[in-house]
């Protein structure tokens, strides 16, 4: 069976698709006779857009290390205008994709893009095309590509199946109703489904597949929860590593699947895919060591939901024993387990950056969302991390259910206190999603659901996401718009008084890690861009 695995256009030209590399490795292990090809159409699109944007060739040369000094912060920030132009064009293409699906009409630029992508895919002569969709913004591209493949392929057009994390964030029955060119959707972990398709088994036997039949919509049994002990290491050799928008390879790695906490009341990950599982540390370290030896990789970032402190101890000990000179990133929970001693040990093993799920500085809200953290402890952990030489990204959510002015001011005071110990802040407005505790108990928290957000419309049918439109109960009993955007705006008005945006908040995450730990020993290190308080 000939299969093409495709990653559609997305928001970043620096991200190397871990899912595609993992699926290829799994299929080649389980179905050796299958022919499977990997196509990163996201990367191809960014290059196409750069070629069509005046001056953007200089940006590509710069980020790939052929022009200027990538590690110089001033030079890096000098390309913000070109980055903005390319991102604006990518956003316009998302709008073009939605318009094309809704009306059947395509702008000349979008028609040319689809034609180029279709030719790339059909050149592999696939019987199946699997499109890996991580983000909701990729869904319109994926659906439009399916239409183009069916039209161009004619009677010999391949079957098209969509899968990936975004499928759990939308109503797949809508997608199949709106997009006849999509032959099926894989819900849940995709390895078993892709291997089954590549083996030529009937659709009725493909785990997790949802598809149309003469009798109506068919939902196969969910895929099995895979033991990570059985999964091979991702095969990044199937992707054009030299073409990504970075001067040195920065690759994603995965130690575990699922969340070890799984109790946050706002989070959709509590119900998506399987439970928490870990790979044997020896296998994980062997994978990293192979990347180190085979591709010269010195920079890796974790795609885990987060890695608990005890696991990170074992991993970093193994890195040291194996003599791996790495710079790496992880996500972590700022709890008492993250002691100064542990943070220092992780830093010594190469941990250069931690993304902390802080969410709020209000203890009342932290308790309400069941975060399992203490604001005072969070502050101590972040400061100890900075003292250990680790860069901190504090991820915040504004407008959490029942938030008040008092909660917002408490969060502001918290951010004032930690601001000199963080290098970047991730700020988002609260999103209410189906299946979460808050959605199931909306009335209890003063939330009035008013509808479901759509990702696209095609053939007169809206494709609904699992994100809900809602209003909040005000003190006078009336319904008001959600506080989230207002709280974000209040923070953005306050923030300039604390200091300017740092370099790290204006560059892709892969570049963040490279600037923290340059690939070349003679490159300057930026140091802390926020001075410590006296």
Describe the structure.
Helix 11 links the parallel strand 11 and strand 12. The strands form 4 sheets. The chain has a 7-stranded mixed sheet, sandwiched between helices. It has a 6-stranded parallel sheet with strand order 8-11-12-13-14-15, sandwiched between helices. The protein has 18 helices and 19 strands. The C terminus is likely disordered. Helix 2 packs across helix 3, helix 5 crosses helix 7 and helix 6 crosses helix 7. It is α/β, with parallel strands linked by helices.
Number of domains: 3
- In terms of DSSP E residues, the strand content is 15-25%
Overall morphology: globular
Q: In angstroms, what separates the terminal alpha carbons?
A: 65 Å
Tally the beta strands: 19
With helices defined by DSSP (H or I, 4 residues minimum), what is the helix count?
Answer: 18
Structural class: alpha/beta
Write the layout of secondary structure elements.
Layout: E1 2-7, H1 18-30, E2 35-40, H2 41-52, H3 56-63, H4 73-77, H5 80-103, H6 108-122, E3 128-132, H7 138-153, E4 159-163, H8 172-178, E5 184-186, H9 191-199, E6 209-213, E7 216-219, E8 250-253, E9 256-257, E10 277-278, H10 281-295, E11 299-302, H11 309-321, E12 327-332, H12 340-348, E13 351-359, H13 363-368, H14 375-387, E14 391-398, H15 405-418, E15 424-429, E16 432-433, H16 437-440, E17 447-458, E18 461-473, E19 479-480, H17 484-494, H18 509-516
Parallel strand pairs: 1-2, 1-3, 3-4, 4-5, 8-11, 11-12, 12-13, 13-14, 14-15
Antiparallel strand pairs: 5-6, 6-7, 9-10, 16-18, 17-18, 18-19
Helix pairs in contact: 1-9, 2-3, 5-7, 6-7, 10-11
